[in-house]
Structure formats: structure tokens, C-alpha cells
Specification:
Length: about 100
């Protein structure tokens, strides 16, 4: 069995490589899902009660967003445009949900 090295183009296309169609689609989906979180943040912070919002679920989303961002290759983090805003939005929901309880 042959192991691919970490710098193999099949594993990481490298800097300056053109992203594939799937990579472009996943980037768009990442931004769309982040934008879909904005109304939840608005709902939590604009009302006096965060009814139906689970701080535990959103804390899990926050944890995995932080983990994903941390485990990314440092060079790939600069391409992860929605990574930091997603963490901020998830944290805003967790804090807002806990604050309103």
C-alpha cells in the first residue's frame, strides 16, 4: 500500500492552485450557512427570552467550529474566510441564550 506524502497534490493542492468545482461549491455553502446563522443571532439578542434556543447545542457548534479552525493548516486558515465570523456568531448565540435565562 502506498502512502501519499502531505505535500502531494492529491492531499493538498498547494498555494496558488486553482480550487476544484467541489471546493468552490463548498466555500459558497460555508458562507451561506454562516449567513443563515445571522437571523438566529438577531432573534436571541433582540428578544428578552431566547425561547427554543439550546445553549448546549450552540456550544457544541462553537466548539467544533473552533476545533475545525484550529486543526486547519496555518496556510489554509487564510483561505477560511468564514471561519472566524462563524466562531463569533456561534459565541454570540451561546452568550445570548445563556444571558436571557
Amino acid at each position: 500500500m502506498t502512502m501519499l506524502s502531505a505535500d502531494c497534490p492529491a492531499v493538498s493542492p498547494g498555494l496558488g492552485a486553482t480550487p476544484s468545482g467541489l471546493e468552490k461549491f463548498l466555500r459558497v455553502l460555508s458562507v451561506v450557512t454562516m449567513l443563515m446563522t445571522v437571523p438566529q443571532v438577531w432573534a436571541v439578542w433582540s428578544s428578552t427570552k431566547a425561547v427554543g434556543v439550546s445553549p448546549l447545542s450552540w456550544a457544541a457548534y462553537l466548539f467544533f467550529a473552533c476545533l475545525w479552525f484550529h486543526l486547519r493548516d496555518p496556510e489554509a486558515r487564510q483561505d477560511d474566510l468564514p471561519g472566524v465570523p462563524r466562531i463569533v456568531l456561534d459565541a454570540a448565540i451561546v452568550v445570548g441564550a445563556l444571558w436571557s435565562r
